[in-house]
Amino acid sequence: MSLLVVRDVFKSFGGNVALKGVSFSLGEGEILGIVGPNGSGKTTLLNVLSGTVRQDKGSVFFGGKRVDRLSPHVRARMGIGRTFQITRLFSNLTVLENVLVPLHYGGPGSDGKRAEEILGMVGLLHMKDVKAGSLSLAQRKRLELARALSLNPRLLLLDEVFAGLNPVSVREILDLLRRIHSETGVAMILVEHVLKALFQITRRVIVLSEGRVIYEGEPEGMANSEEVIKAYLGERYEAFRGKGP
Ligand SMILES: Nc1ncnc2c1ncn2[C@@H]1O[C@H](COP(=O)(O)OP(=O)(O)O)[C@@H](O)[C@H]1O
Ligand SMILES: [Mg+2]
């Protein structure tokens, strides 16, 4: 049985149709990459999955249950965790407190020990008493990951987790994601522009263009699709072939 099934999802904002019939499914523990030009609907799709945006049409099943009318909190407790393109941390709270907040909403049984365990996993335990506002971008991304992991997700939604990071930090976050995957078996959907890093963690990619899936398959196949080259690869083509930056 699939962990996640997305069926024919439509979403418009006013006259602007952001998703035009998106369907795909994801198995337990599987990793999927979602790429596409800016404005193609990637973040909207993650929002529909996590529940911060309600689709106009279509359905989302998670663990065999229909979830598309449930609140983000309920979905988080069911095991859908996420990070945001622009990190959403509490700057005035400490690193540890930032992880305690979602744990608190997760219900009884949550405690500081668990929070410290997760901070250890993402490499931030030594900074637990530092205010989140004074973290570097790479550290903020680690903290976002810790928050998403706090409720023991079965599915992790990551929106541009590598964006803005230098190559060393990209490699470190990539290693961290690999470790999280092997230790917890969590399934992941990564919305990503940093293709080189993405292709090191998954062999399965969906390309979105103007709210539609125009390609699904292995990274190599992207370069054989005229539609993908035209809509997305364009100037990224050299980097994609491993010749670029
Ligand atoms: N809350 C919103 N209100 C109005 N328009 C939105 C909203 N969120 C997204 N859109 C529009 O939906 C389209 C898809 O956006 P988005 O999902 O953010 O794309 P991506 O993440 O691929 O860059 C864009 O045209 C964007 O302007
Ligand atoms: Mg986006």
Commentary on this structure:
With 245 residues, the protein is of the alpha/beta class. Helices cover 36% and strands 24% of the residues. The chain has a single domain, classed as Rossmann fold. The chain contains 10 helices and 10 strands. The strands form 2 sheets. The chain has a 6-stranded mixed β-sheet, sandwiched between helices. The protein has a 4-stranded antiparallel β-sheet with strand order 2-1-4-5, covered by helices on one side. Strand 4 and strand 5 (65-66) form a beta hairpin. It starts with a strand and ends in a 5-residue tail after the last helix. Bound molecules: adenosine-5'-diphosphate and magnesium ion (MG). Magnesium ion (MG) is lined by residues 42-43, 85.
Kindly summarize this structure in a few lines:
The protein is α/β, with parallel strands linked by helices. The protein has helices spanning 42-50, 72-78, 95-105, 112-121, 137-149, 167-184, 195-198, 219-222, 226-233, 237-240, and strands at residues 4-13, 16-26, 31-35, 57-62, 65-66, 80-83, 155-159, 187-191, 205-209, 212-217.
Give the key terms.
24% strand, alpha/beta, binds adenosine-5'-diphosphate, globular, 10 helices, 4-stranded antiparallel sheet, 245 residues, binds magnesium ion, Rossmann fold
